[in-house]
Amino acid sequence: MTTNLELFDQKDGLKTPPLLITLSVVAAVLMGVSAWMVFFYAPTEKVMGFVQKIFYFHVPCAWMTLWSAPLMAFGSIAYLATKKDRYDRLSDAGVELAILFGTLVMISGPLWGRKAWGVYWVWDARLTSFLVMVLTLVACKIVRAYAGPSAKTIAAGLSILAVVNALFVWVSVDLWRGTHPPKLVATLQVEMKQVFWLSVLSFHLAYFAMLWARLRMGKLRTALDRLAIKSTEAGLD
Q1: Is residue 154 part of a domain?
Q2: Is there a domain that residue 108 lies in?
Q3: Per the structure, how many domains does the chain have?
Q4: Long-range pairs of 121-124 with CB within 8 A, sequence gap ≥ 24
Q5: How many CB atoms lie within 10 A of CB 191?
Q6: Is 129 within 8 Å of 65 (Cβ atoms)?
Q7: Residue 120: inside a domain
Q8: Residues spanned by the domain of 113
Q9: How many CA atoms lie within 13 A of 130 on its CB side?
């Protein structure tokens, strides 16, 4: 008989923690409140006008994308060193969240850029490096799906490459004064700062709720793989 310890590496199975439910609800409420404040409380910027409100979503999404870098780095390096599934799950979760928020950045950025520059895209150093990072992360998922027995190892290597690119993205705004605007948070009006930091908080809570849920999903997937192996060994396939 297969036990919970064999499937989940813990005796009590995989119950949904009340804290995860609470965190998800709080994140959802704060996301709604921050969205309301963006459109009805924060003043309209004089130069950019209404389109500047993309800033309150674009910047937190970029930060959440870069937040995934240390997760991917730790998970990938630890997996390459130990070959333990829990580290691979952490790396994979970081990759998926980085793709999600990175895609939101790549959608919201051009909408903002169209108003600021008159075009949706320019080959600015930071924009280009960010695009390369997102494409590298997508490659991680493709490799994981089709590279066979060595998929996890190759995906870990690509994740580390994406982390190096993320570090470049972080410093590029200070190294090159290109089309992409410099850091603007310190110059915001008081009301704008209040809304911005509330938006940042809501995105952080949403990020950690999704990360927690994604790690749990990874455990379920690992348990399903172990169960399939056991059923094959028992001749039940």
Answers
A1: yes
A2: yes
A3: 1
A4: 122/179, 124/176, 124/178, 124/179, 124/180
A5: 12
A6: no
A7: yes
A8: 19-39+49-222
A9: 29
The pTM of this model reads 0.86
189-225 pLDDT, tens digit per residue, is: 889 899 999 999 999 999 999 999 998 887 787 777 6
The token pair that represents 166 in the structure block? 């993320």
Contact 137, 155 (CB under 8 A): no
Reported as a single tens digit per residue, the pLDDT across 22-75 is 999 999 999 999 999 999 998 888 878 888 899 899 999 999 998 899 899 999
- Residues in CB range of 138: below 8 A, 6 or more apart: 99
Alpha-carbon span 151 to 157, nearest angstrom: 10
The pair of three-digit structure tokens given for residue 75, joined into one six-digit string: 């998970």
